[in-house]
Amino acid sequence: MSTDLRNRRFLDACRRQPTDCTPVWIMRQAGRYLPEYRALRRQYDLLTVSRMPELVAEIVTLPVRRFGFDAAILFGDIMLPVAPMGVDFTIEEQVGPIIASPLRTRSDIARLRSVDVERGLGYVAQTMQASVAALDGQVPMIGFAGAPFTVASYLVEGRPSRDFRHTRALMFSDPAAWHDLMERLTRVTIDYLRLQIAAGADAVQLFDSWVGCLNAADYREFVLPYSRQVFDGLADTSVPRIHFGVGTSTLLEAMAEAGGEVMGVDWRIPLGDAWRRIGDDFAIQGNLDPARLLAPRPALEGAVDAVLGEAAGRSGHVFNLGHGILPDTPVENVEWLVAVVHERTAHPAAAAVLE
Question: Any catalytic annotation for residue 77?
Answer without folding.
Answer: yes
